[in-house]
Amino acid sequence: MAEVVLRGVWKRFGEVVAVRDMNLHVKDGEFMILLGPSGCGKTTTLRMIAGLEEPTKGQIYIGDKLVADPEKGVFVPPRDRDIAMVFQSYALYPHMTVYDNIAFPLKLRKVPKQEIDRRVREVAEMLGLTELLNRKPRELSGGQKQRVALGRAIVRKPKVFLMDEPLSNLDAKLRVKMRAELKKLQRQLGVTTIYVTHDQVEAMTMGDRIAVINQGVLQQVGTPDEVYDRPANTFVAGFIGSPPMNFMDATITEDGFADFGEFRLKLLPEHVEVLRDKNLLGRDVIFGIRPEDIYDAMFAQVKVPGENMVRAMVEIIENLGSEKIVHLRVGGITFLGSFRSESKVREGQEVDVVFDMRKAHIFERKSGKAIF
Ligand SMILES: Nc1ncnc2c1ncn2[C@@H]1O[C@H](COP(=O)(O)OP(=O)(O)OP(=O)(O)O)[C@@H](O)[C@H]1O
Ligand SMILES: [Mg+2]
């Protein structure tokens, strides 16, 4: 087992900066997620850790060992890094049985036959593949193939697992099942794991911590609760959570309201204190609140018109059964509310909505940086 450390890592492809000054410390045994939109540099980061790509600048450590540093001329090849990788395409050997596919990395390393047999059977048991050991890959379902690919990765007991969207080829239901299995397996093995995905639900449900990346730049590293409750900026706030956080242009008034022009909301005293300290009273900011923190007033305890409640027009309702995503409008301002399924809202009618101001976020207008 080992920690993985990136210090000031850059990767350029000609003009393109794929990774920009990345600093990341993955702890021993941790399940770290690299999360971000397509093209943000997730795979490139993983490939540099694996040794399939050399950084342009910076240092990478696996355990205490420096494995890449172009300035010192250090570059340890992949086979000497003691890592195992699982990719989106499982790339099993089609002519080999499940048993031989899993055994393959051990055979390459000339592990004694008895030891190979013991470890293949142990891994197969763990992954529920015991009954399938004599089958060929074409006789397996997608989920079974993916488990064989996982088996091949874990059989070696590497220091670090690197996984690049390993579940994205599976159908939605199987993905949910494999998500839980993979997480359980990682806990059981305790092997440091770096897992790439652009799916925020996968990230939230699986990760010990999540590293959110945008355009090659690390935005925030935190536990799922931290990135959800205390996003560092508007990018993280908008990327984590579904439907995404509402953002509204506001001015902070001297008397402690967020003023949207059409209406205003009273900020909590402790929030006003923070804004006063930052010299933001009287200034333009971005106000953020998640749909799940906006209620149908019918179901709200504390409701004060002009403070935390406003009458809004219901434009569209998306009924998800467990909840209703309601598209709301006050004058020219639109936002989403996630209402309880019992809500009696109707499209084209007005409804009183309540904002849970304890859950309000304020971001700097220019930089998008979170004040709280
Ligand atoms: N070999 C390469 N040559 C040139 N540009 C590259 C190369 N590999 C990646 N890039 C560029 O670097 C950036 C980051 O790519 P990367 O594959 O790391 O993104 P990603 O976050 O994994 O995206 P996705 O979610 O689509 O897989 C992109 O702009 C991509 O076009
Ligand atoms: Mg990728």
UniProtKB/TrEMBL annotation:
SUPFAM superfamilies: MOP-like, P-loop containing nucleoside triphosphate hydrolases
Gene3D superfamilies assigned to the protein according to its UniProt record, in alphabetical order: 2.40.50.100, Nucleic acid-binding proteins, P-loop containing nucleotide triphosphate hydrolases
A Gene Ontology molecular function term of the record: ATP binding
Superkingdom as given in the UniProt entry: Archaea
Keyword line: ATP-binding, Hydrolase, Nucleotide-binding, Transport
Membrane topology: Peripheral membrane protein
Domain ABC transporter: 4-240
Name of this protein: ABC-type transport system, ATPase component, putative maltose/maltodextrin transporter (MalK)
Organism of provenance: Thermococcus gammatolerans (strain DSM 15229 / JCM 11827 / EJ3)
